[in-house]
């Protein structure tokens, strides 16, 4: 089965478990896309490289919690290339935003991701499992 990953800080874990989904959040692209939409960021990187995913620079460790998401055909999950093209992102900004990173590993969901589409939520360091989908 194909898997995408979402990373977050332990600080956000309880809110995810309580709500039952990964919520849409500010994409930091509001002024650079024609029609702004909040998103859930995903990646193919099982072992995250914080800078290449835009997760560095915070006092929180945004790679501590790894969430495994079922990768299935859906119109709401797009590659970064598809998302940025569809939303008419300024090519100069797109190039600058992606420089030195790995945009080929980025995926965007324009819809919340519910626990039914989450396979596993784990702590990358302690290996503790917080949620496992019994498919």
Can you characterise this structure?
The protein has 135 residues and is an alpha+beta fold. It has a single domain, classed as ADP-ribosylation fold (Alpha-Beta Barrel), CATH 3.20.170. It is 19% helix and 27% strand. The chain is built from four helices and nine strands, in the order βαββαββααββββ. The chain has helices at residues 13-19, 50-53, 80-86, 91-98; strands at 3-8, 21-22, 40-43, 65-70, 77-79, 106-109, 113-114, 118-123, 129-132. The strands form three sheets. A four-stranded antiparallel β-sheet has the order 1-4-8-9, with no helix packed on it. It has a three-stranded antiparallel β-sheet with strand order 3-6-5. The protein has a two-stranded antiparallel sheet with strand order 2-7. A hairpin with a 5-residue loop joins strand 8 and strand 9 (129-132). It starts with a strand and ends with a strand.
